[in-house]
Design brief:
The complex is a heterodimer. By secondary structure, chain A is an alpha+beta fold. Chain A is 37% helix and 14% strand. In chain B, helix 2 packs parallel to helix 5. Classes of the chains: A alpha+beta, B alpha+beta. Chains A and B meet through helix 3, helix 5, helix 6, helix 11 and helix 12 of A and helix 1, helix 2 and helix 3 of B.
């Protein structure tokens, strides 16, 4: 089946304006007649919840954290892109659009990306109005810096805590609506099932994580803003609670899962230090503005970095990519690091990293300036690695960071299940096969503040004066029963292995076979192994405690069960995509100098998978990608 | 290294709770405190006992989820460090470590080391925002903000809402948390229109839940983000001024009701 993305006609510059004019509206006095559920309170969820509340809809927001402010958007460090061209360095909406399409290796939808670039400027205005304390110059105007994959400075930032400040801005706007009574907040509640009735999203089943009570919520529209699925790898830069359950449950109920194999491995993270590792910590990409990446020229060089003279250092990014140098896109930088480490040039005790060196920057700018720019990141590094990055270079290595794939959505951000909208990282929409730095925050806020509030009225308008679905229907009963039964099963297996031990094994399998480099044989093996592990899980997992109180093991157990199924789909998608593009690198498909080799003739489409049952292969549906403006070419950052 | 833990276990809000002792063998200095607890929890599950419940999420020191009183100090012995960023190299082989939840009347224990911090949300809800509905904003560079002001606002905005300040306070007061948000917004030009109503609403809401500040300064010592008690002074000053600046209250709400309406 070929999917219709409902891209509006007309020149790309006019599509969004025309579409907004042509979309049906809901009049202010009618908005209170509509119930909208928002799951997740990160940038996309909180901004959507706040904005829909402001518009006058009845909104319910759910999050599993104890406060909506803690959603993982809060941990984003580097910045947010916007085509303001405040630096007068040649930026424009068109250039941001072009950079994003190219950075995504020509696997994203042009109309969406153009809209994102258009909206980017309004996001900055909105956030400043809310009081987000972006970095400023001495004249009082906003400061910018550069990120990978671009040759302009368009990244707005708030020290190394941009995500925190944007998240708090959205959270505060949300809490204002809670105070005004337009938004009902349910923290420490986890969505465990979506209810589909007559082919439409009718509501959700949630579990109160404190009391274990299952409750039913219906609405005219359900919005999933539940983030990415990087924790399928166990080790990632995501928060421990990040999970795929909401979108996976929707997928099982018919929502297509698009491009799961597009996973982003971030090049600058602190390397693994041992078996106890519970997560990986990102060191912001902004560090590559001033840090230089290198490894020793000689393999297995055990000298201290300071003892290695310049002539015996291989600044391999500068060598291979002179034009973009240390600021090549993430996928390129990650693969280059892996190549050096695999070839035996890795540094550190475990030889599992490369150096990110600030020696030159400190010499050029002085320690004070470097401290102002990156102080908190340096402190964090020193804390975790036990080494002072002002004295010796950081050791870094790529880690799973972001997932470009997600639920398939059309131009309105509605999935193929009518009434189910998906925003932020949870959808697949804007980044193609690779996301550029500082674009996740941009997309989350674009979706939540501007896109969804404009498009959702088109769906709601047709349901005027229809009540929200009943929560005692067969569909709700079945969904609630299924959730209760699943919880009961997890609690009664009473096997021998902990949830974490299974999760670690799943993650390692995926990292080894479906990580930075993939090939057909290992993907097939991995898929089989994951499927076996999943079966073992359901017969040997040990979840203690009960379902009627706070039970963190039980929470994890449900999430990991869904990760297994997603892991299988991830391998299936990676296996079917016989090309390399962005974060998806198939060893069989590379240029002679080791770069990703796309196959535009055969794979210029979105792979939207349809669930066919646990353990069965998913069915492929395609959305063909057409490039009218940014014509696909071999990406070159040389 | 080998450690002994004394951990607070409490089944639920109404349970009395008690300490239990656990061995934590084979801990390495690269582990974070929470990774050490992960190791202990795996052992507990293997031996058929429920894992210790504790809040945690980003494990990067920014989400504010984690927090426990370690050897009597919120977030443990290392300054400016959240529990998740506290690494075991700060402990020695053979150490005995006491681990408790936040102790504060406004934060009842949910289970083990997990507490209910929703009163913080209530304070933000009361006024910790600027009214800026989506879509109506002017160009971001139209209002220059002196760098020093922006930097100071940021210093206040760096609060992660973990609650260590409340846990450290002998009175269980939330002045540091409240003042951090009030100062962040009240320092900025965008925050001026609601400055007086904001501080009044936030402080009044705070007092519904928390104890009173008597300037011990323990909060500042415990804060993993180094939020200064200078912000409390600023909040108190603003609160006092607000009693005179609140035009509605001064003139009487009824006098203003017909003013300009319609």
């Amino acid at each position: 089946m070929t999917l219709d993305a409902k891209i509006p006609p007309g020149p790309i510059q006019e599509k969004w304006d025309n579409h907004r004019f042509n979309t049906k509206l809901v009049a202010p006095q009618n908005r209170r007649k509509f119930d909208v559920i928002v799951v997740g309170s990160g940038l996309a969820g909180a901004s959507a919840g706040a904005t829909l509340g402001e518009l006058g809809y009845n909104v319910k927001v759910f999050c599993f954290q104890d406060s909506p402010r803690r959603a993982h958007s809060i941990a984003a460090q580097g910045g947010i892109n916007a085509a303001k061209n405040y630096k007068n360095d040649g930026d424009s909406v068109y250039r941001l659009f072009y950079d994003t399409i190219k950075g995504g290796d020509y696997r994203s939808r042009e109309a969406n990306v153009y809209r994102l670039a258009q909206i980017s400027t309004s996001i900055i205005d909105q956030c400043v109005a809310q009081g987000v304390p972006f970095a400023r110059e001495y004249g009082g105007l906003l400061d910018n810096r550069s990120f990978g994959g671009t040759q302009v400075s368009r990244t707005f930032y708030a020290r190394g805590q941009t995500g925190q400040q944007l998240e708090l801005g959205a959270y505060q706007a949300l809490m204002r609506q809670v105070e005004l009574g337009t938004v009902e907040l349910h923290s420490r509640h986890e969505m465990l099932e979506i209810v589909v009735e007559d082919g439409k999203a009718a509501g959700i089943i949630v579990r109160d994580l404190i009391t274990g009570e299952l409750t039913r919520h219906s609405a005219h529209a359900v919005v999933l803003a539940t983030g990415g699925y990087g924790n399928v790898f166990f080790l990632s830069t995501q928060a421990k609670g990040c999970n795929t359950t909401a979108i996976w449950r929707a997928h099982r109920k018919g929502a297509y899962f698009a491009n799961p194999c597009y996973t982003q491995i971030h090049p600058t993270c602190i390397p693994v230090s041992g078996d106890h590792q519970s997560k990986l910590t990102l060191m912001s990409e902004s560090l590559r503005n001033d840090g230089r990446v290198w490894v020793p020229v000689k393999p297995d060089d055990r000298r201290k970095p300071g003892d290695i003279p310049a002539a015996e250092r291989d600044y391999y990014l500068e060598r291979r990519y002179p034009a973009f140098a240390n600021l090549v896109p993430r996928d390129v930088a990650s693969r280059a690091a892996k190549e050096r480490v695999d070839a035996g040039y890795g540094v550190g005790e475990l030889k599992n990293g490369v150096y990110l060196d600030f020696g030159d920057a400190i010499h050029r700018l002085g320690r004070t300036v470097v401290e102002q720019r990156y102080g908190n990141l340096f402190d964090m590094y020193a804390n975790i690695a036990g080494e002072d990055p002002y004295e010796s270079p950081m050791r870094i290595y790529p880690a799973v960071h972001y997932t470009m794939g997600g639920l398939w959505v059309d131009y309105n951000l509605m999935s193929n299940l009518p009434g189910l909208f998906v925003v932020g990282e949870a959808n697949f929409s804007d980044h193609g096969a690779n996301r550029l730095g500082a674009s996740a925050l941009m997309q989350g806020l674009a979706d939540g503040y501007f896109v969804l509030p404009a498009t959702i009225s088109g769906w709601l308008a047709d349901q005027l004066n229809q009540p929200a679905p009943s929560t005692t229907s067969d569909a709700f009963n079945e969904a609630a029963d299924a959730v209760a039964e699943r919880i009961n099963t997890l609690l009664t297996v009473n096997g021998t292995r902990t949830v974490d031990s299974f999760h670690r094994e799943l993650g390692q399998t995926l990292w080894d076979n479906c990580g930075m480099a993939r090939n057909a044989a290992s993907l097939s093996d991995a898929r089989k192994k994951i499927s076996e592990l999943r079966e073992e899980y359901w017969s040997d997992v040990r979840v203690l405690g009960d379902g009627q109180s706070l039970n963190q093991s039980l929470e994890k157990a449900g999430r990991v069960a869904d990760f297994f199924e997603l892991g299988e789909l991830l391998c299936q998608d990676a296996l079917h995509r016989e090309e390399s593009c962005g974060g998806h690198f198939r060893e069989e498909h590379q240029t002679p100098d080791g770069e990703a080799k796309r196959d535009d003739d055969n794979f210029a489409y979105v792979a939207a998978w349809e669930f066919q049952g646990t353990g069965s292969k998913a069915k492929l549906n395609k959305e063909d990608l057409e490039f009218e403006y940014a014509h696909p070419s071999q990406r070159s950052y040389k | 290294m080998n450690l002994t833990l004394k951990v607070w276990r409490q089944r639920g809000p109404s349970d009395a709770g008690h300490f239990e002792a656990y061995d934590a063998p084979g801990i390495t200095e690269d582990m974070s405190f929470l990774e050490m607890l992960d190791v202990v929890n795996e052992q507990l599950i293997h031996s058929g006992r429920e894992a210790i419940a504790f809040d945690h999420d980003c494990r990067e020191g920014i989400c504010g989820s984690c927090g426990m009183v370690i050897n009597g100090k919120p977030h443990g012995p290392k300054k400016l460090t959240t529990t998740c960023q506290l690494h075991m190299r700060n402990f020695r082989d053979g150490d005995s470590i006491t681990v408790e939840p936040w102790r504060a009347a406004a934060f009842p224990v949910v289970k083990d080391l997990v507490v209910d911090r929703r009163p913080f949300d209530a304070i933000i809800q009361a006024g910790g925002w600027i009214t800026a509905p989506t879509g109506g904003a002017q160009d971001a560079n139209l209002t220059p903000i002196p760098k020093a002001v922006a930097d100071q606002a940021f210093d206040a905005a760096a609060c992660i809402g973990c609650g260590a300040c409340v846990a450290a306070c002998p009175n269980g007061a939330a002045q540091l948390f409240t003042s951090a948000k009030a100062a962040h917004l009240n320092l900025l030009p965008q925050g001026q229109p609601e400055r007086w109503s904001r501080v009044t609403a936030m402080v009044d809401r705070m007092e519904e839940y928390f104890g009173s500040c008597t300037n011990y300064g323990e909060c500042q010592q415990a804060c993993p983000k180094g939020i200064s008690i200078d912000f409390i002074a600023m909040m108190n000053r603003d609160y006092l001024k607000a009693q005179f600046k609140d035009r509605k209250r001064l003139v009487g709400a009824s006098d203003l009701a017909g003013d300009g309406a319609g």
